[in-house]
Amino acid sequence: MNKYLKKAENGSGIDHYTRVPDTGAKQKITFTKMHGCANDYVYIDCFQNDIQNYAELAIYLSDRHTGIGGDGVIYICPSDVADARMRMYNLDGSEGMMCGNGIRCVAKYVYDSGIAKKDVLHIETKSGIKICRVHVENGEVTTVTVDMGKAELVPAKIPVDFPGDTAVKEKITVLDKEYEVTCVSMGNPHCVIFGKDPDTIDLEKIGPHFEHFEKFPERINTEFIEVLDNHTLKMRVWERGSGETMACGTGACASAVAACLNGYCKKGEDITVKLRGGDLVIHYTDDGVQMTGSADTVFTGIVEI
Ligand SMILES: N[C@@H](CCC[C@H](N)C(=O)O)C(=O)O
Question: For ligand 1, atom 3, which residue shows the shortest CA distance?
């Protein structure tokens, strides 16, 4: 892919792409563009495509100007222990441990394409095997309920560099403003902040400062939450590796857990998280976190690299 386009610095701080001569043979890759609550990824079926460099291809295909465009790329691969294996890559080529919106789309793809036509699918991820219950209309999956497993609240397991071994709530100062954060791992790290209407926040400005905050050794996903009532949260998210996205499934789960820890919502009751791209319903109990939401196919195509 980098045979065709090369990023060039022109000194103005803006990257430009220049076309370079194509010398080698091209590979045709089939793909499907899908989204869950407008968190959109390019999905590549590795049962059919032989991919060599996952991270590099993810950066190339995610670009909204010179690629297909998306919040990243998700590879659907064969698994020895489950119906399929998900490998998710952010816009910057970093690999995520888990992706809540992505796994619903993977389950839809696995069912709709016939890889495994089962109502309950097992999908292997970097944070373990997740169980996905698909809801089917007219032969196609429309929504999926995922058993996301247990939330991790111990600092070392999130991970966050906070003192002690039980605290998940801390006060941190970002760009001269103090925030109380509740940190939760849903297989990947999240930092949840409760406050005013998230639409009023300058997320482009503050998001990167949370992502790279010194106390988050593996960077972090940050959720800004307004509690609308004790069953409803409004959320905006800054994802590590991808920036602002329209929704984050693991982030919605982390936020619902954090809302219960802070007394805004109750365990065992459905919590609707309203994201810019749609709603997710989260159910948090002592057994774990269940997430239900949509999975949609946008288009399919072939890309030559
Ligand atoms: N959008 C995702 C999360 C994707 C991974 C995240 N950016 C990370 O690196 O942890 C979701 O729906 O959960």
Answer: 99
| 99 CA → ligand 1 middle, Å | 5
Spatial separation of the C-alpha atoms in residues 159 and 212, rounded to whole Å: 13
pLDDT in tens, 22-41: 667 789 999 999 999 999 99
Q: Report pLDDT digits (tens) over 259-271.
A: 999 999 999 999 9
The phi and psi torsions of 219 (rounded to 5 degrees) equal 60, 180
Choose which residue among 34, 62, 74, 88 to substitute to test ligand 1 binding: the one with the highest number of ligand atoms within 8 A of its C-beta.
Answer: 88
124 token code pair: 């292997």
Would you say 86 and 72 are in contact if contact means Cβ atoms under 8 Å apart?
no
> If you take atom 2 of ligand 1, which residue's CA is the nearest one?
99
ipTM confidence: 0.99
Residue 46 contacts by C-beta under 8 Å, 6 or more apart in sequence?
75, 76, 77, 78
Set out the domains of the chain in order of their start, with CATH numbers.
Answer: 5-147+295-304 (3.10.310.10), 155-286 (3.10.310.10)
Q: Show which residues are catalytic.
A: 99, 248
In whole angstroms, give the CA distance from residue 234 to residue 279. 9
pTM: 0.94
106 CA distance to ligand 1 middle (Å): 14
285 is in an annotated binding site: no
